[in-house]
Amino acid sequence: MEKMNNALERMKMLVGMEGEDEAASAMEDNTSFMDDFNRNCTLSTKQRFYGFAICLAAGITCTLLSLIVFFNPIKFGITFTLGNLLSLGSTAFLIGPKRQVTMMLDPARIYATAIYLASIIIALFSALYVHNKLLTLLAIILEFGALIWYSLSYIPFARSMVSKVMLACFDTEF
Predict the structure, then answer these.
(1) Average model confidence (pLDDT) for the chain?
(2) Per 3-state DSSP, what percentage of the chain is helix, strand, and coil (rounded to 5)?
(3) Are 43 and 12 spatial neighbours (Cβ–Cβ below 8 Å)?
């Protein structure tokens, strides 16, 4: 039983949740809005995993359903973007919204985050407001590329490896 409790505590630390001892010591006098929000909206470990699984499943479902309406770029853009937002939001259940935002604004991935979020906004704007199929399709291509680049920022040395491989593949000098 002790091994099980130790494993659960290590898993909590891995996904960014505080243990019981640390939660009591984390209460400080100077709090910000996000600290108050995180403290008032606490979820149990089981609730976090359920939220993660439901959000991720809904995101993957929306992304896969977007393939059905692939030839209608406006509907495709809406469902694909909604799937991406749900999948991105699912990780906030695991590590918390404050840590998610902090990790997204990390200097190593700030540009990837900015391009990814901008491409989501552009895709939704062009699909919902402008109703331009070509612009929506270009925004979705940009969103997909930004999603890949953003995801690679979480894997050590992945972006530099992909950059070197792309340079090697498309090098025109012999």
Answers:
(1) 82
(2) 75, 0, 25
(3) no
pLDDT value at position 118? 93
Tokens coding 114: 């900015």
Give the C-alpha distances (Å, rounded to integers) separating 36 from 25, 30, 97, 117, 144. 15, 10, 12, 25, 34
Residue among 21, 172, 141, 12 nearest 70 (CA): 141
- Predicted TM-score (pTM) above 0.70: no
CA 146 to chain centre: 12
Residues 6 or more apart whose CB falls under 8 angstroms from that of 1 comprise none
Report the C-alpha gap between 92 and 43 in whole angstroms.
12
**CB neighbour list of residue 82: distance below 8 Å, 6 or more residues apart:** 59, 62
Say which amino acid occupies 134: L
- Averaged pLDDT, 104-130: 90
Q: What is the pLDDT of residue 14?
A: 58
State percent of the chain over pLDDT 90.
23
Q: How many CB atoms lie within 10 A of CB 132?
A: 15
